[in-house]
Write a structure and sequence with these properties.
This protein is an all-beta fold. It is built from 1 helix and 12 strands. It has a single domain, classed as Beta Barrel (Porin). The model has no long low-confidence stretch (mean pLDDT 86).
């Protein structure tokens, strides 16, 4: 009898913090999720292929060193798998109030596109271009709305996007990635462009440390603003996977 993917999905504990120049804002989060080791179960997939299930994050946003609002994120499914020359991604019930953007909810979304993958004894690299479509709700919030009324209200529509994603294992314990994207929420005149760079160190199979750099550009009607900053993430996976 085939086993459920949950049988191979240990819980992962994750603590993270970020600091952004825009508005002197920072945030702290701690979370829990189940992570399916896709590369171990499906050896022909890329090393950054993932299936994450039942994720919850909770924390706080700090504005000029004082408490601003509760931070949280809940995700049912977040997956991305590249095999051969094609990539597929799927999200379900991802409600995100954990970042600079006050509400970034992806109720259901799909993405697909071409990719290339190179692998050797000392490296593993992938590059992909994804076109995405999802039913989403955005709210930019007072920190980044630049006084536009659209940015201060929940806006729901079709989120159409294009993302270029690269990842590489550049040493035995060092991983790096970059994602550049552009998204538009149809019917609302809201647009977002983003860059996320990550450099991670696998301390051992249970502990991973990641440094992040990010930049977001937000547009609402005829106004625009941007936010950039850095983040730190530490994850711990106590359960070993038995195949």
């Amino acid at each position: 009898m085939a086993q459920s993917p949950l049988a191979f999905a240990p819980w992962q504990i994750e603590a993270s913090t970020y600091s952004a120049e825009s508005g002197d804002v920072s945030g702290v989060l701690i979370g829990l999720k189940r992570v399916v080791p896709v590369a171990s179960l499906l050896p022909q997939t890329t090393s950054d292929s993932k299936i994450e299930l039942l994720g919850v994050q909770l924390g706080a946003q700090l504005l000029e060193q004082s408490y601003e609002r509760l931070h949280f994120r809940a995700t049912a499914i977040d997956m991305l798998i590249q095999r051969g020359l094609m990539t597929g991604a799927f999200k379900l019930l991802d409600y995100d109030r954990s970042g600079i953007q006050e509400v970034d909810a992806n109720w259901i979304g799909l993405a697909t596109g071409p990719g290339i993958h190179g692998q050797g004894s000392a490296y593993d690299a992938a590059l992909r271009l994804l076109a995405s479509a999802s039913l989403s709700t955005w709210k930019f919030g007072s920190l980044i709305s630049t006084a536009s009324p659209l940015g201060l209200q929940n806006q729901t529509g079709a989120d159409l996007g294009l993302e270029l994603i690269g990842s590489a294992k550049i040493a035995e314990k060092v991983i790096a990635s970059i994602a550049v994207g552009s998204h538009r929420l149809t019917g609302s005149e809201l647009n977002r462009r983003n860059v996320l760079m990550q450099m991670g160190y696998v301390i051992n199979p249970k502990w991973t440390f990641v440094l992040q750099g990010f930049k977001y550009e937000f547009e609402s009607e005829d106004r625009s603003t941007d936010s950039k900053g850095i983040g730190i993430q530490l994850s711990y996976t106590p359960g070993a996977v038995s195949l």
